[in-house]
Amino acid sequence: MLKFDLKHLMETHHLSIQDVSDKTGISRNTVSQLYNNKSRGIQFETLSKLLNGLGVELYDLFDNSSDLKNLRFDVSYSSREELEFKKSDDGSYFPNIDSTEFAEVSFFDEENSTKEFTVIDFRIPLGIELKKNKHFTAIEFYSYEELTDDNMEIRNSYLLDEFFRSTAKKEIETIFLEVIQVVLHHCNLKNLDVDFFAFKTDLGLINEKEPFTINFVWPSLLFNDLDSIEEFIKEKYNKISF
Known about the structure:
The protein is α+β, with helices and mostly antiparallel strands. It contains 7 helices and 10 strands. The longest helix has 18 residues, at 169-186.
């Protein structure tokens, strides 16, 4: 995930601690702490001075690594309406809000989050669909490339690509189980009479010669408590090696 890395920027541009202090107005002591990664955090005012004084973009001050231990997420919803599924004349079910703009999940490193700002690593849009036939009923959360054409920058696509490539499938499934758990609670969907919940995406696979999707299907009973989810992951991946 993204890590604040002033040292890399300074070495790339051959800047000394005094150079940065002169250009930004930040004290030598503060620059030194940031350079040596001894600061407990960075204030918004300091960050603004670095961006303006050095003439760089926000992402230039951060390095992308694959450490997931501090990865957190936040879900924003496109509508304040309570989500409901209605039956159409042809017998299919559809949500009462725009299903392709249902929600967006923002991922960030906990170390890059303060009360003043959060540096977002990458974002994933979520659509939702209810599938029902004589055998089963399922709610599928999906995130396809076509949902992002107009509102997702290229940088985000490449960060997604790196995330999906560098992260074990077990970790990806655990993360999205947590995401769906939050969404179900927020939208009061846990008590809906369905057999399965699913997550499907083709994001982050932009460099594949033959694109494929990531697809998870979970029994609805799994979401009754967190212990069930942990046991499910443990049992599933103890039996399968990747």
